[in-house]
Structure formats: structure tokens, C-alpha cells
């Protein structure tokens, strides 16, 4: 058994043989593009209800959301990037 392991060490498999033995399935026909329409919206920083709603969505307090808006603008996409959500 050790002889067999030593023989295989250092050998690089032929990529074509690997592809032939282990084909990659194409699932492009089952994937649907994800377009989060909310990302194209903006948070109304003057509306307490909108601030409270988005603060809850991002699971942060309203003051943290106001700070994120001050640093990054009111685009939901930019706020998500900033918060890494």
C-alpha cells in the first residue's frame, strides 16, 4: 500500500482526464437573476417612520442608521455595502 501511495505522490493528473471523469454540471437553466428592487430605493432621512423601518431591517438603531446615511448617502445599496449586509 505504501508503494502505491509513493507512486501517486508528485504526479499531476491530466486535466482533460479529470474533466472527463468528473464533469461539472451546468445549472445556468435553473438559476434566476436576483434583483432586489429595494436596493434601488433611498431612505428618507426626514421621515421618522422610514428611518425606523430601515433601522429595523438592518438590525441597528436609528442613530446608527443616521450616521451611516451621513457617511454614505441615503441609497439603500450604499448603506448595505457600508453595513456589509
What best-fitting shape do the alpha-carbon axes yield? elongated
First and last CA, distance: 50 Å
The SSE order reads HHHHH
* Percent range for β-strand residues: under 5%
What level of helicity do the residues show? Answer: 40-55%
Q: What's the average pLDDT?
A: 81
Radius of gyration (CA) equals 25 Å
How many strands appear in the DSSP assignment?
Answer: 0
What ranges have pLDDT less than 50 throughout 5 or more consecutive residues?
Answer: none
As for the number of domains, it is 1
Count every helix, treating DSSP H or I runs of 4 or more residues as helices. Answer: 5
User: Pairing-aware structural class of the strands and helices?
Assistant: mainly alpha
The main β sheet shows up as: none
What is the gist of this entry?
The protein is mostly helical and 85 residues long.
Could you explain how this protein is built, in words?
- By secondary structure, the chain is mainly α.
- It has one domain (2-27, 39-83).
- It has helices spanning 2-8, 15-21, 48-58, 62-72, 76-83.
- α3 (48-58) packs across α4 (62-72) and α4 packs across α5.
- The protein is elongated, with a radius of gyration of 25 Å.
- The protein starts with a helix and ends with a helix.
Amino acid at each position: 500500500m505504501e508503494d502505491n501511495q509513493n507512486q501517486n505522490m508528485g504526479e499531476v493528473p491530466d486535466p482533460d482526464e479529470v474533466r472527463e471523469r468528473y464533469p461539472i454540471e451546468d445549472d445556468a437553466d435553473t438559476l434566476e437573476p436576483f434583483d432586489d428592487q429595494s436596493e434601488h430605493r433611498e431612505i428618507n432621512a426626514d421621515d421618522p417612520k422610514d428611518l425606523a423601518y430601515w433601522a429595523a431591517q438592518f438590525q441597528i438603531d436609528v442613530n446608527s442608521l443616521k450616521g451611516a446615511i451621513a457617511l454614505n448617502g441615503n441609497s439603500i445599496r450604499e448603506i448595505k455595502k457600508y453595513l456589509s449586509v
